[in-house]
Amino acid sequence: MTTLLGYARVSTSQQKLDIQTKALLAAGVREDRIFTDKASGKEAESREGLQRLLVRAEKGDTIVCTKLDRLGRSTADMISIIEDLHGRGVAVRFLDDGISTEGAMGKMVVTILAAVAQAERERIMERTNEGREEAKAKGVKFGPKVKVDHEGIKQAHAEGTGASAIAKQFGCSRQYVYKVLKEASERS
Predict the structure, then answer these.
(1) What would the pLDDT profile of 138-162 be if each residue is shown by its tens digit?
(2) Which residues form a coiled coil (predicted)?
């Protein structure tokens, strides 16, 4: 026998869960099997209701939500949750969207959602790479910061070497040289 479990979420503590919980009850979910959160979807670890629901859900159960965006913080997150549940034999049904991973069409829905998640990940990578290339073109340097020899800078300055020459020698900016020298003078 399928056990219906409900999940409802609003983004702030001021919002009410009434509309979602009424829809879940009307769909046949028992009140004691409705898990709720009043938290932003971005903060998955603060969504205790979702965490309890995911632990509670067993093979053969169906999780019912009113809308897709109530379950995950992003499309990729929501699909990840659905794929995990599907792998455990737990179906997910979205009332307002008319989408379900139940029955013969369920596998197709999960496959389509997985394809959407993959496309979203690829688009994110594409945008990230475009931004990185644009930043490089503007002179932004990537990679670990080079550790500069502060003692060497102080010694070169003490020997009469100018800030520009020190910066060139140690691969840093003149401002950085002045910062190191200022910190050294404040300590002494």
Answers:
(1) 888 776 666 788 899 999 999 999 9
(2) none
Same domain, 27 and 102: yes
Is the Cα dihedral 169, 172, 178, 179 positive or negative?
Answer: negative
Other CB atoms within a 10 A radius of the CB of residue 14 amount to 7
Q: Based on the structure, what is the number of domains in the chain? A: 2
Q: Let me know if residue 78 belongs to a domain.
A: yes
> From CA 160, how far away is CA 22, in angstroms rounded?
79
Q: What is the pTM of this model?
A: 0.59
Q: Which domain does 79 fall in, by range?
A: 4-120
Residue 11 catalytic?
Answer: yes
Q: Which two tokens stand for residue 185?
A: 């003078």
In a domain, 157, yes or no: yes
Q: Please count the CA atoms within 13 angstroms of the CA of 98 that sit on its side-chain side.
A: 0
* Catalytic site residue from 11, 74, 80, 100: 11
Could you write out the DSSP letters of every residue in 82-104? Answer: HHHHHHTT-EEEETTTTEE--HH
DSSP-derived pairing of the beta strands 91-94 and 99-100: antiparallel
Report yes or no: 78 and 47 within 8 Å, Cβ to Cβ: no
DSSP 70: G
Side chain identity, residue 141: K
- What is the rounded CA–CA span in Å between residue 177 and residue 181? 6
